[in-house]
Amino acid sequence: MSKITAAITAVGGYVPEYRLTNKELEQMVDTSDEWIKTRTGIEERRILKEPGKASSDMAVPAIQEILKKKNLDPKEIDCIICATVTPDMVFPATANLISAKIGATNAWGFDMSAACSGFLYSLSTGASLIESGRYKKVIVVGVDKMSAIIDYTDRNTCIIFGDGAGAVLLEPSTEGLGVMDSILKSDGAGAEYLHMKAGGSLKPASIETVTAREHYAYQEGKTVFKFAVSGMADVSAAIMERNNLGADDIAWLVPHQANLRIIDATANRMGLPTEKVMINIQRYGNTTAGTIPLCLWDWEKQLKKGDNLVLAAFGGGFTWGAIWIKWAYDGQ
Ligand code: UT7
């Protein structure tokens, strides 16, 4: 019997309508369009403004796009893995809420908390479920409503982040397509540089934590930047080396969109020209777990069966990693 691999067989995405531009941010904090563009590459990000809407409300349309494209009954879905650091609630898992909203009544599921590497961790986990032979249809969705945890008086963080969701369907392949290899890493020593201080069991919400603005993402940008540049480039180079992949073998680098300068450093290290790098940071900013599937969504039509893709990310934890994929279908 030929080996089962986990192929991505459809992609869906969703970004909210509201565009928060650099110009608007100039009115909110001491920054400039010029500074943001040159230091990060970002021009605008999408924000989920409607009251009462949460991460699941972005994940649902992304997954529904897949159901429509594949003419799939939601009851056929075996499992939903939701990568997010902005779950609708602390519990139950957003994956469970999504299942109920789309009618995936036969699915089990769980949330994956790995910040900007959440989609890679989830994709690798979902691939293992498929490879085991026990599951035939696994949805992996990366979604974050970063605007829910961003302090719009802090120019160090508010200029980078945005809201959005991207999803993929994983199905078994016997043609040797799909997830080929992954290298995933973590180092909790990095927590001090990127975290949310309150709201967990260490520091439950109180009047004091709210007054001290501790329910927002805290980031020491310069330090995270330094680790991200080396972490993302090293792991991308490592996955190429381990699989004897040269720059010419790779059709696309699909990088986490945190900062254009981090993306450029990774592409340079891999020897890839800009034309082979998916970059949409100028339009969406950093949507945390959403960035990589949103790139796949934007580029789906250009992808060809057999294309080698390297997905790479670095983020809070620290967490980082790279996944090599052989794309399973021609975009139309
Ligand atoms: O996705 C999860 C992981 N996160 C990341 O990968 C993000 C990594 N970090 C970064 O992308 C960058 O560090 C930032 C974009 C957050 C900041 O860029 P930077 O080039 O590292 O700036 P910096 O913090 O070193 O600050 C340089 C200067 C400082 O001024 P002085 O001290 O040189 O006078 C800052 O005060 O720029 C100033 N500055 C700003 N100026 C205008 C910092 N933020 C801003 C701002 N607008 N928003």
List keywords for this structure.
single chain; 332 residues; Peroxisomal Thiolase, Chain A, domain 1; 2 domains; five-stranded mixed beta sheet; binds oxa(dethia)-CoA
The whole-angstrom Rg is 19 Å
Number of strands: 13
Helix content: 25-40%
* Assigned CATH class of the largest domain: Alpha Beta
Beta-strand share of residues:
15-25%
Average residue-wise pLDDT? 97
Structural class category: alpha/beta
* Strand order across the largest sheet: 1-7-6-4-5
Write down the secondary-structure element order.
EEHHEHEHEHEHEEEHEHEHHHEE
Oligomer: single chain
In this structure, how is the largest beta sheet organized?
A: 5 strands, mixed
The CATH homologous superfamily of the largest domain: Thiolase/Chalcone synthase
Architecture of the largest domain, CATH level 2? 3-Layer(aba) Sandwich
Within the CATH hierarchy, at the fold level, what is the topology of the largest domain?
A: Peroxisomal Thiolase, Chain A, domain 1
Shape: globular
Q: List ligands, each type once.
A: oxa(dethia)-CoA
Number of domains: 2
Terminal Cα separation, in Å? 31 Å
Summed up, the helix count is 11
Task: Give the secondary structure arrangement, pairings included.
Elements: E1 5-14, E2 18-21, H1 22-28, H2 33-40, E3 44-47, H3 55-70, E4 79-83, H4 94-102, E5 108-112, H5 118-131, E6 138-145, H6 155-158, E7 163-173, E8 178-186, E9 194-196, H7 207-211, E10 217-219, H8 221-242, E11 252-255, H9 260-270, H10 281-284, H11 291-299, E12 308-315, E13 319-326
Parallel strand pairs: 4-5, 4-6, 11-12
Antiparallel strand pairs: 1-7, 2-3, 6-7, 8-13, 9-10, 12-13
The protein binds oxa(dethia)-CoA (UT7).
